Request: fold
Amino acid sequence: MKTRILTAVIALAVFVGILMLPPIVFTIALGAVILVMLYECYTATKADIAMKIVGFVSAVLVMFILWVRTSSYPYFALFYMPIIYCVFGIILLLNMALVIFEHKKHSYKDILSNAFITIYISFSMMCIWLTRHYFDTNKMIIIFMGAWMTDTCAYFFGRLFGNHKLISNVSPNKTVEGSIGGVIGAIVFCALYLFIYSQFTHKDLLMSGVNVNYRVIDITWLIGGAGIGLLCGVFSQLGDLTASAIKRDAGIKDFGWIFPGHGGFMDRFDSVMFVSPIVLVMMIIMSGLVSLV
Reply:
C-alpha cells in the first residue's frame, strides 16, 4: 500500500511538472509513453523483432496523421485526405507483408491483432493530445481524473465493501461493490470538477462582455460532468478488464515494472486509453451545448 501511494504521488508530481512546461514537452512525452506501451504489449504477446518494427512504424504514422490534422501548414490541409489514405495504405501493406514473410513463424491472427492493438493504442492515446489541442489543459485533465478516480474509488470501495466477485476468471480481485463505487466516484469528481471549471468561465465571459445565463451554464456543465463521469466509470473499468484479460492469456501479472506497486505504462494507462476518445467526443458535444446558451 505504501509503495503504491508513494509511486502515485511521484508520478502525479512528474505529470503536473510536464503540464507546466512548453506544449512540445507534453507532445514528446505522450509520444514516448505510446511507444513504451506498445513495447510492453508486444513483449507480453511475444511479438518478434519484425512485428515490433512494423508496429512502431505504424504507430508513428498514426501519430503523424493526427498531428497533420491540427497543423496550420496549408499544404497539409489541402492534401489531408490523400495523406490519410497513403498512411493507412502503408500500414496495411506492411502488415500484409508480415503475414507473408512471417508465415509459419506467427499466424495471421497474431499479426493482425498486433496491428489492431498498435492502431488502437496510438489513436486512443493521441485523443489526449487532441483534447488539449482543441480545448485546453483543464478539460484534458478530466480524462485522467475520470480514469484514475474510477480506479482509486473502485479499489477502496472493493476493500471496504467488496463481497461479490465481478468477473473472477478475468480479474479475481475485482468486486461488484468496487465497480459500483468506481462509477459513483467518477460521477462525483467529474461533475464537481466541471462545475468548478464553469465558475472560471464566468470571469472570462464577463471580461468579454458576453451576456449569458450563468446558472444555465453551471447546470449544463454539472449535468454534463455527471454524464462524462458515468461514461468514464464504465469505460475505464472496461479498459482495465480488457488489459487483465490480455495479461491472463499472456500469463503475466503486469505489463511492466517502471511504476513500483502499479506495473508498467500499460497497467497505468489501460483505462485512460478507453476513456480518452469518449471524453474528446463529450467535450465536443458539451462545448456545443454551452455555446448555445
